[in-house]
Design a protein that fits this description.
heterodimer; A: alpha+beta; 2 domains; four-stranded antiparallel β-sheet; about 25% helix; about 30% strand; B: about 300 residues
Chain lengths: ~230, ~300
């Protein structure tokens, strides 16, 4: 598709940032536009751009306003959007995340099951039955916003957040599911835990998940979980 | 030879000007909360302005130097003594081997920076020495200094030390009431005219929830017109978001990289360093400026730093 039909809006979000919006709804199409602009700006390594914040339907570009003006950066962005997405773009990398859905790790499995009038086994079966899409990372380092939760699993977040959620905890909140990369407070309903290390600042690629990746969860038993925990 | 931490102060971390290029991994920039004071301290000892230095909050450190060094401080007022003798804050000072440096409690702000010629030597994580307190990495093992820590002086290139240009210095302290200049927030149209009037005419008080991730304010309630949920988007540094309860939050250096509350305004880059000096009970007001005025004010501030680093 030629890029000339792309509808977008560029706004100065602050004196040091531009927000490029591709509509105001979550859609695969809008997110593909976000990702293609994000990827091209990331690979360009333009020194005047300091940070890129992709989200569902927008990309926030943080830059040094003493090096480039809002107008010039806006034209720069327009040029890439006009070119359209790179033609050789393949599917995003696919990542499998093993999850132990034991009662100890999934204290909210009963409430998710009850809310949706299904069994705990069905919760696990549904959660591992689909491929999720990484929209973007935010909230905390390495925290991925995943799209694609089966509608039968939607459950409101906890009325009172837990003050401590273990790293690797897998949760559901509304129509979202995700993995807590770090120990933190949190209000999502916990259904399991992964032994995979989601975030490691000292690694070359600090976050296991990147915007645009595909994710599948696979159920593992407790002994596999214990065996695959990274040695500290 | 090293520097021994005899007293770490209330909350002291190693910082630089921030960790950029990682926001898409959910990693906020961190870095000095008052970057202007941080850069000033580094320039005074002759460092590059990004050399790792100590950010001291509310109360200062007591350090024993195992080797002689050239040091300086900048930021909020606090006592500054070597072996019990007060020293000047206008220029870098030499501290002898075996001497003890003591910084006191901060007034007219909460953060003071201690720079050492050559910088503090800590491993760079994702290209920065800054301490990320949220994910606990960077700086000294991703945490605040503790009693007994041993700090190393780095070997970063050094130029001539500078005397602080006090006369032309941009506004730096916080006393009582501070007006922050802001630009229009991305979702400003989500607020009715009377809500905007309230925001720009009423004072807000800084609450106890005041730190590097953000500063929660309390004042007359600001209601958003649009109660439907905002689609989560990226958060610029200094964004002022208004959650449904109607009390604004200034998002700061350790902030979340994305969020879902409407943003009414954004603190201008030239005033961000003052956000780093706020403490509970301080009073703030907001005044809107245009983007071009904000960039002009930032350029003026940079010109001051450039002149002073050239002297």
């Amino acid at each position: 598709m030629p890029g000339s039909t792309t509808r977008f809006r560029v706004t100065a979000a602050s004196d040091s940032s531009l927000l490029v919006e591709f509509g105001s709804e979550i859609s695969q199409d809008a997110h593909e536009q976000v990702l293609s602009l994000f990827q091209v700006l990331l690979s360009e390594r333009e020194a005047r751009i300091r940070n890129l914040h992709p989200a569902y339907a927008s990309l926030l570009i943080d830059f040094d306003p003493l090096q480039i003006t809002h107008e010039d950066l806006g034209s720069h962005v327009q040029k890439f959007i006009d070119l359209g997405p790179p033609s050789a773009e393949g599917p995003g990398r696919s990542i499998e995340i093993p999850v132990c859905y034991d009662a100890e790790f999934g204290p909210d499995l009963p409430s998710v099951a009850e809310h949706n009038r299904i069994s705990i086994e069905e919760v696990i079966r549904l959660h591992t039955s689909v491929t999720y899409h990484v929209y973007f990372l935010g909230f905390s380092p390495g925290f991925a916003y995943l799209g694609g939760l089966p509608p039968q699993l939607r459950t409101p977040r906890l009325a009172t957040p837990r003050s401590r959620v273990a790293a690797g905890s897998v949760g559901i909140a509304g129509e979202q599911t995700g993995v807590y990369p770090l120990e933190s407070p949190g209000g999502w309903r916990l259904i399991g835990r992964t032994p995979s290390r989601m975030f490691d600042a000292s690694a070359n690629s600090p976050s296991l998940l990147q915007p645009g990746n595909s994710v599948r969860f696979s159920a593992i038993d407790r002994s596999s979980f214990d065996k695959s925990l990274p040695r500290l | 030879m090293t520097i021994s931490v005899l007293d770490p102060g209330f909350a002291t971390t190693v910082q630089d000007l921030g960790r950029y290029g990682c926001a898409h991994l959910g990693i906020s920039p961190s870095g000095a909360a008052d970057s202007l004071a941080f850069r000033t301290a580094n320039l005074m000892v002759g460092n590059h302005e990004n050399a790792p230095a100590l950010e001291m909050t509310l109360s200062g450190v007591r350090l024993k130097f195992g080797e002689s060094a050239v040091i300086s401080i900048a930021g909020a007022e606090c006592s500054f003594e070597i072996d019990g003798n007060p020293v000047s804050r206008r220029q870098a000072v030499q501290i002898g081997s075996g001497a003890v440096l003591k910084c006191g409690r901060m007034s007219n702000g909460v953060r003071t920076y201690l720079a050492v010629q050559g910088g503090f030597d800590v491993p760079l994580v994702l290209g920065s020495a800054s301490t990320n307190m949220v994910a606990r990495f960077g700086g000294v093992q991703g945490r605040m200094l503790r009693k007994g820590d041993q700090l190393q002086i780095g070997t970063l290139p050094v130029r001539k030390a500078r005397v602080l240009d006090v006369e032309n210095m941009p506004r730096s302290g916080i006393t009582g009431e501070t007006t922050f200049r802001v630009t229009r927030g991305v979702q400003q149209e989500w607020f009715a005219a009377d809500a905007l009037l309230t925001f720009f005419s009423q004072p807000f008080k800084v609450t106890e929830q005041c730190g590097r991730t953000g500063i929660r304010l309390v004042g007359e309630r600001i209601a958003a017109l649009n109660t439907s949920q905002l689609l989560t988007d990226g958060i610029p540094l200094g964004a002022i978001q208004v959650p449904p309860e109607g009390q604004p939050i200034i998002l700061f250096v350790d902030q979340q990289t994305t969020g879902g509350y409407p943003k009414i305004a954004n603190v201008i880059a030239a005033d961000m360093h003052l956000v780093g000096q706020l403490r509970p009970q301080d009073v703030v007001r907001f005044r809107e400026v245009s983007i071009s005025e904000a960039v002009h004010l930032l350029r003026e501030q940079e010109n001051w730093l450039k002149r002073f680093s050239r002297e």
